[in-house]
Write a structure and sequence with these properties.
Elements lengths: L1 H4 L2 H9 L3 H38 L5 H11 L2 H29 L7
Helix pairs in contact: 2-3, 3-4, 3-5, 4-5
């Protein structure tokens, strides 16, 4: 955000007399949101998949506990199903990030 506020188009908007709140929300925030979306999208999926460790450590019932018990019991179908579920979760999080890119910055084109 600080980098975006020092750009030429922000100085031009200030010199034209645009209110400060409009400069921040309409100009600077849109351009500074792209790196945030890039980091936050997959990070949300990592947090959900990382909860499997927390479930196992604190013995809370959930997908993590089932996954660990499937590994111990050599239940290959449940191991594969959990792995595919988590991979699908990562793909969906990445796809949502790509859609948010288009909403934030209309210059981005999908091919």
């Amino acid at each position: 955000m600080l980098d975006a506020l020092s750009q030429d188009y922000i100085r031009t908007a200030r010199s034209k007399g645009v209110p400060k709140w409009k400069i921040i929300f309409k100009h600077a925030l849109k351009n500074s949101l792209i790196p945030v979306i890039t980091y936050a999208g997959p990070q949300i999926a990592y947090i959900i998949t990382g909860s499997m460790v927390v479930e196992t450590v604190f013995t809370v019932g959930g997908i993590g506990t089932k996954f660990v018990s499937a590994i111990n019991n050599r239940d290959y179908t449940l191991i594969m199903a959990t792995t595919i579920f988590l991979a699908t979760l990562m793909v969906i999080a990445t796809m949502i990030c790509d859609i948010l890119y288009k909403l934030v910055d209309p210059r981005i084109k999908f091919d």
